[in-house]
Structures are given as structure tokens and as C-alpha cells.
């Protein structure tokens, strides 16, 4: 009887609206995995102080992406790391447990330079072959990793406030995108691929940020400024993958 009445009244009774409350993204910076002098604010999305911090979710899906807004310049590192990395360092990529693009325009892993961004060529220069750690690229300034105090290996082109990315080098106000598919780690500057493919990333890795010398970084985990590359998506927590 109820079913018949329901079908009869279908389209007659006004539709009932259901209010759906949008839940906050559970992924954020992890206060249980950060350096002693790191400060996390803005609901777990902003890092400042000195040291490193991981996100609270590993990159377990096949293709994941996140962004980092360079809110304030200083010394910073952005990339991936395992929970075994030393988060009390001010430089990412200094140990074998982290892979990072740094504010001195070098991609580091294990303290070795994998790439350096070349402003004059607008591209990346591999150091001893792709992802093959070697000696300093001829003609560049040796890198001082503790802390980053060496000048860039090339002149930096100033950008207007808010960042432009026109020089091909990250500036204050720019957005760094990070894409990882368990084969390659790639970095993007304001939506443009920097062509820094990092291979041989090992272990269970998490997004990582390192800050020092006044740097302020905001991790962006959804509502991206530039959007992920085709096939990539925001970081998903493990239970949502089931």
C-alpha cells in the first residue's frame, strides 16, 4: 500500500533537500613527525620556524599530487621523505631518506646534487646523469648543506611581488607542485613541469617541507591553484582506497 501511494505521489510532493556537511580534508602536516623548532599553524597547513615536517598520510595511491605555496622566502626544501629522515635538519635531501627541491635551486638526495636549475638555460642540468649522484657540476659553486649558506650556482632573476616564475626559478609567491607515481618524482613551478624527474625513490614516503631563515610554506592538498597533471589526484588516505 505504501509503495503504491509513494509511486502515485511521485512528482507531486515537493522534493526534500538534504544538507550535506563537507568534511575537512584529513590530510595535513603531522605534529608528531616534525623537527623540535618547527611551528605548524593554519589548521595544520602552514610550516615555519626551523626544521622539517611530514604530512600525516603516505603516498600509497598510484598517482598523487600536492602543491606548496611559497608564502615567504628564506631557506626551504620541498619533496618526499620517509619517517626515518632527520627532521631536525634545516635542509631536505641531506640524508638518504629524503628527496627534495631546495631554495638554492638544487635537487638533493643523500646530500648529493641530482639536478640544479639553470636560469640562463631555463632548464635543469643533471649532475652526473639523471639521478646519478656525482661531483659538483663544473663551473658551479660547491654547495654548503649545513645550513644552506652558499650562493646560488647562477645569478637569480628578481621577480615582482607575488612571484612570476618567469625566470624559471622559484620565487616568493610561487607555487611548487609535486607529483609522484612510484616511478618518478616530478616538480612543477606554477603549473609548468621543471623537468626534474627523480628516480629510485624508496620506501613509504610522505610529503615533506623543510623551513629555515624565515621561510613560510603552505601545503595545498585540494582546491589546487594549478591542478594535477593528467591522471594524478590529491592525496587519499588509505581507507578511502579500499
Automatic annotation (TrEMBL):
It comes from the Eukaryota. InterPro entries: B30.2/SPRY_sf, ConA-like_dom_sf, SPRY_dom, SPRYD7. Residues 61-225 form the SPRY domain. Residues 148-173 are annotated as: Disordered. Pfam families: SPRY. This is AGAP001349-PA. The lineage of its organism: Eukaryota, Metazoa, Ecdysozoa, Arthropoda, Hexapoda.
Amino acid at each position: 500500500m505504501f509503495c503504491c501511494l509513494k509511486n502515485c505521489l511521485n512528482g507531486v510532493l515537493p522534493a526534500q533537500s538534504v544538507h550535506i556537511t563537507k568534511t575537512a580534508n584529513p590530510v595535513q602536516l603531522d605534529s608528531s613527525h616534525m623537527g623540535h623548532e618547527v611551528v605548524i599553524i593554519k589548521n595544520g597547513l602552514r610550516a615555519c620556524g626551523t626544521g622539517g615536517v611530514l604530512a600525516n598520510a603516505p603516498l600509497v595511491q598510484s598517482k598523487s599530487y600536492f602543491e606548496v605555496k611559497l608564502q615567504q622566502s628564506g631557506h626551504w626544501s620541498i619533496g618526499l621523505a620517509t619517517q626515518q629522515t632527520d627532521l631536525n635538519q634545516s635542509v631536505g635531501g641531506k640524508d638518504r631518506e629524503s628527496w627534495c627541491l631546495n631554495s638554492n635551486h638544487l635537487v638533493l638526495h643523500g646530500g648529493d646534487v641530482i639536478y640544479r636549475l639553470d636560469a640562463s638555460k631555463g632548464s635543469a642540468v643533471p649532475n652526473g646523469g639523471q639521478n646519478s649522484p656525482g661531483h659538483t657540476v663544473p663551473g658551479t659553486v660547491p654547495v654548503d648543506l649545513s645550513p644552506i649558506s652558499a650562493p646560488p650556482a647562477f645569478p637569480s632573476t628578481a621577480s615582482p611581488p607575488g612571484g612570476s616564475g618567469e625566470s624559471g626559478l622559484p620565487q616568493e609567491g610561487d607555487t611548487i607542485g609535486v607529483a609522484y607515481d612510484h616511478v618518478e618524482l616530478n616538480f612543477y613551478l606554477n603549473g609548468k613541469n621543471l623537468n626534474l624527474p627523480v628516480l629510485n625513490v624508496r620506501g613509504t614516503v610522505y610529503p615533506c617541507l623543510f623551513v629555515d631563515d624565515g621561510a613560510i610554506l603552505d601545503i595545498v592538498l585540494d582546491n589546487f591553484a594549478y591542478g594535477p597533471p593528467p591522471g594524478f589526484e590529491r592525496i587519499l588516505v588509505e581507507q578511502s582506497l579500499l
